[in-house]
Amino acid sequence: MPKIAGYRCKACSSIALSYRAVCLNCSSNKLEKVEVDGKGKIFAYTIIRIGPERFRNQEPYAVVLVKLGSGPLVTGRLVADDLENIENGMNVVLEKQDDVAYWFKIV
Ligand SMILES: [Zn+2]
Predict the structure, then answer these.
(1) What is the CATH number of the domain that holds 101?
(2) CA triple 58-62-66, angle to 5 deg
């Protein structure tokens, strides 16, 4: 299963996916690079019916905000045949990452 690169605070163990000089939770500057598991739950989602030029011919598609099991939120695309039955709280897993997005699938 692909992983997501992030940073873990050595003081409080909270995880951020983008680099910060200090931990937003406890202000420690002791951060280490980690790779976190791609398992999580749909926190919020939307269906894009008219996308930007670059993604024409892919509509409609789902953009999801996923709450990873390790804590952080990450935005990605959802690989799903049935866009009408997506719900918040569904379990998802990272399938791949490319230059467009993290791609999650429902599990
Ligand atoms: Zn911290």
Answers:
(1) 2.40.50.840
(2) 140
Q: Give 39 Cα–ligand 1 centroid separation in angstroms.
A: 22
In the reported structure, the alpha carbon of residue 18 is separated from the centroid of ligand 1 by a whole-number distance in angstroms of: 14
The CA 106 to ligand 1 mean position distance, Å, reads: 31
For residue range 35-89, what is the model confidence (pLDDT) as tens digits?
A: 999 999 999 999 999 999 999 999 999 999 999 999 999 999 999 889 999 999 9
Q: Confidence band (pLDDT; 50, 70, 90) for 14? A: very high
The total number of structural domains in the chain stands at 1
Tell me the whole-structure pTM to 2 decimals.
0.90
Burial class of 55 by CB neighbour count within 10 A (0 to 12, 13 to 18, 19+): middle
Q: Determine the distance separating the centroid of ligand 1 and the alpha carbon of 67, expressed in angstroms.
A: 18
